[in-house]
Design brief:
Blueprint: E1 17-18, E2 20-26, H1 31-41, E3 49-55, E4 60-66, H2 69-72, H3 76-80, E5 86-92, E6 107-111, E7 114-124, H4 127-136, H5 147-156, H6 162-170, E8 175-183, E9 186-191, E10 200-204, E11 207-211, H7 214-220, E12 223-227, E13 233-237, E14 242-245, H8 258-263, E15 269-270, E16 273-274, H9 275-289, E17 296-299, H10 305-315, E18 323-325, H11 338-348, E19 349-351, H12 353-356, E20 360-365, H13 372-383, E21 388-393, E22 406-407, H14 415-418, H15 421-428, E23 432-435, H16 438-444, H17 460-463, H18 471-483
Parallel strand pairs: 17-20, 20-21, 21-23
Antiparallel strand pairs: 1-22, 2-5, 2-11, 3-4, 3-5, 6-7, 7-8, 8-9, 9-13, 10-11, 10-12, 13-14, 15-16, 18-19
Helix pairs in contact: 1-7, 5-6, 9-10, 9-16
């Protein structure tokens, strides 16, 4: 979501983080209130900033703020500032160089055709190139968000209708997007041709609802209708009429498989599958592929819990909460130094000493990113008296960066990007270390395995096989190569 891409900047904590979640509703008398409630259900997708824009039939209203949804939209006064039967909102996670109010969405602009507000989940991988072209033609940018590129492309399109303008704009972009758009004529929702980022549709009485996850529909009391299909553009008018368009043809879908591993809430349905069931199945696959002679299966809470339940059920090893998590501490990425961040791990997780003391432990986590948290947790288990600590990971090694709307460290900071399995085991100081295979992951989500010729999901963070061009990255690497060329000295 930032021109200063999270893959290139910022420390972050030792998890991959979705950058945002979107929610939109049209045809509801209390649209802003429903939007705030839906965004609260999506808080896990973005915890740094939140915004809501509403439309009352004449005028657009926007309220944005840093922090959580409850920090900004918990009072009747805050909701009263957002009148109308249509509202769209956004929760954001950003990194160094991308935070601040100017990047908080929805972004709004007055175009020749009227007001235009957009909330975007994803990342445009040729945003820098497009921005440079637009600036050279006189465009003025107010944010560092790649979402603003979409607004400028819509504004400069010569097509007559908003559908055609937005389609024209999106044909120029690469990467991933799930969009909720508001205009004086109604609401539109659109998903990129490969469906990398999620988007679903529901009904709340006569109102139509769009959200990043089905859990947001559940929380507001909406009935799930269906997912927005990859490459689909849905228009909803104020009279409730719905029109579906497929302007980008049919491209093989590649939804993000990490939604099953970590991003989505366990009580969501993603790609027609229960996320909770998928995570349990991953743990069962892991137990079959990488068994361990141990006394207890212990999850790294909370993200490792469903996989640990599956591992325990398949292996027959008892499941125990050997680590207790405090839910009342700030996220560790806020800490300014490595020392403070590592102390934050201790504040967030504490060993259940009476459970683990003298035991051989199988630790289950969803992923290993930098490895720093894994190291601290292994040491915590040893300090609590664990006899052996075996680490099992409910995803393949994360050795590649994501450019589709996920905060990922540069590859040199990814443990699997710079070490083999044995070196990783030594780094986290575990007695053994193993990951679920890529085919095991695909089996866990209901497939026979990964189709190497045409993968069914985007799994680039594991395989390095990116489903779209990465124009900005290629341009950056080309410039770096040019800068590194030796200078020919003239004698």
């Amino acid at each position: 979501m930032n021109f200063t891409h999270p893959f290139l900047d910022g420390d972050g904590d030792d998890k991959l983080h979705e950058e945002c979640g979107v929610f939109g509703i049209i045809g509801a008398p209390d649209a802003a209130a429903a939007c705030a409630l839906g965004l609260h259900a999506l808080q896990h997708r973005g915890q740094e900033a939140v915004g809501i824009t509403s439309f009352d039939g004449t005028e657009f209203f926007t309220r944005r703020g840093l922090g959580h949804v409850a920090d900004n939209f918990s009072s009747a006064e805050s909701i009263a500032e957002l009148p109308g039967q249509m509202a769209g909102g956004h929760v954001r996670y950003s990194t160094t160089g991308g935070s601040g109010m100017r990047n908080v969405q929805p972004l709004y602009a007055d175009l020749a055709s009227g007001g235009f507000a957009v909330a975007h989940n994803g990342n445009i991988s040729n945003a820098m190139q497009l921005k440079q072209e637009l600036v050279s033609k006189g465009a003025i940018f107010q944010s560092t968000s790649d979402t603003e590129v979409i607004i400028h492309l819509v504004a400069t399109s010569r097509y007559p209708t908003m559908l055609d303008k937005l389609t024209d704009a999106l044909r120029l972009v690469e990467g991933a997007y799930a969009l909720v758009v508001m205009t004086p004529r109604g609401m539109a929702a659109c998903r990129d041709p490969m469906g990398i980022r999620p988007l679903v549709m529901g009904k709340l009485g006569d109102a139509v609802v769009f959200a990043s996850e089905t859990v947001a529909l559940d929380v507001v009391g909406a009935e799930f209708t269906r997912q927005v299909e990859p490459g689909e553009f849905i228009e909803v008018d104020f009279d409730g009429s719905i029109r579906s368009h497929r302007p980008f043809g049919n491209t093989p879908a590649r939804p993000c498989i990490f939604e099953h591993v970590y991003f989505s809430r366990p009580d969501s349905i993603f790609n027609k599958r229960s996320v909770y069931e998928s995570r349990k199945n991953i743990g069962m696959e892991l137990a079959r592929e990488m068994p361990c002679d141990a006394d207890l299966v212990v999850p790294v809470p909370d993200s490792g819990t469903p996989a640990a339940i599956g591992y325990a059920q398949e292996s027959g090893i008892p499941f125990e909460l050997g680590i207790i998590r405090s839910h009342y501490v700030g996220r560790t990425f806020i800490q300014p130094s490595d020392g403070a961040r590592h102390a934050g791990v201790k504040r967030k997780h504490n060993a259940n000493r009476k459970i683990v003391e003298g035991k051989r432990i199988v630790l289950i986590d969803d992923s290993i990113v930098r490895g720093t948290t894994s190291l601290k947790i292994v040491q915590m288990m040893r300090d609590a008296g664990a006899k052996e600590v075996h680490f099992r990971v409910a995803s393949p090694p994360t050795g590649h960066g994501c450019y589709y709307g996920v905060d990922t460290p540069e590859r040199s900071k990814l443990l699997a990007g710079r070490m083999d399995l044995e070196a990783m085991r030594e780094f986290i100081q575990a007695d053994s270390l193993a990951f679920v295979s890529i085919d095991g992951l695909y089996r866990a989500v209901g497939l026979e395995g990964r189709d190497k010729a045409c993968p069914q999901y985007c799994d680039a963070c594991f395989t390095g096989e990116y489903p779209t061009p990465l124009t900005d990255l290629a341009g950056r690497k080309e410039k770096e190569a040019q800068l590194s060329l030796p200078v020919n000295k003239v004698a």
